[in-house]
Amino acid sequence: MLIDVKVPVLPESVADGVLSKWHKQAGATVRRDENLVDLETDKVVLEIPAPQAGVLSEIKYPDGTAVKSGEVVAVIDTSAAAASEPAQNVAPAPAVSPTKPAGVPAANNELSPAVRKLVAEHQVDPQRISGTGKGGRVTKGDVLRHLEQQPGPGTQSSVTVPVGEGRGEERVAMTRLRTRIAERLVEAQHSTAMLTTFNEVNMQPAMAMRGRYQEAFQKKFGIKLGFMSFFIKAAVEALKQFPVVNASIDGSDIVYHNYFDVGVAVSTPRGLVVPIVRDADSRSFAELEQAVSDYAGRARDGKLTMEELTGGTFTITNGGVFGSLLSTPILNPPQSAILGMHKIAERPVVEEGVVVARPMMYLALSYDHRLVDGHEAVRFLVTIKDMLEDPARLLLQV
Question: Is the bond into 334 cis (omega within 30 degrees of 0)?
Fold first, then answer.
């Protein structure tokens, strides 16, 4: 019986995905629920598993092909299922005649001289290339497409072109995520009236509280008390006072959100992703720290789900972990504002006429001026500053 392998149903916000890497070749035995191919979207990398055990009789599209929700990408023949041993991850290479170069497929999948030269130059295994020629023959176009459209999770294929002695250029295909990041950044610049306001916060009170309760906190909850929970709590209280900052524009309407889904930007090998902490207002410090830690770990492993990256009413990004002293964060449409945290550094400040050294952090709030007025943005940021400089207010919600 022939079973179709289909692209899973994607959210409305995701138009399509790219088949980034096939883990099985045509003719390979597969197990039920075994990952056949990675599907890279503009948010996450999904796995397309085998719906039934059998033999992968046909691969419809090679690596690098864009496919849509519900599209058939392969066919499994369940009547040819192996009776005993589990399927191997890679199909064994066919026997090679002594008169043929190593790595060149035999019988009906012979390589032409031009293709043989191309795979030798780029050290490509032709068995990993899906042929589109007659009888499954690998063509020159198949090899070039394989070289140029091979981005996988955390990796990118490249083609090096010599431009002179000791010089060269490397052409690397953009990942789906990087392409979408580029599109959204340009969209934010062109579709919003973005401005940024700055302030600075004395982190000594928050650092003192964190140090005082760190051991007890970690012993009770099994996780360290970081600064992100302080900032999420402070942001939520400020959003309650200035609901327009938690709103978004939809056509000619303003949508006020009566919930607080805070996105926390996380850097990964594939690019920046923003998992969403849902209902942040109802979570404790420990729950916030656990959520952020879990999201960060799974983001770097490429294990976040589509739902965890969708939505959000406000975003926090922390460039300070990379040493950034001051920067201008870019909006994450359709959100109307984003808070940028930065490096904590000791600087001289004046307190009651005396110059003292304090651990200071610059804060930046970028906002859509179409929706948020300047005085609202400034007061919003001052509210966050006041909360952090007197962290007891976060517990009392005053």
Answer: yes
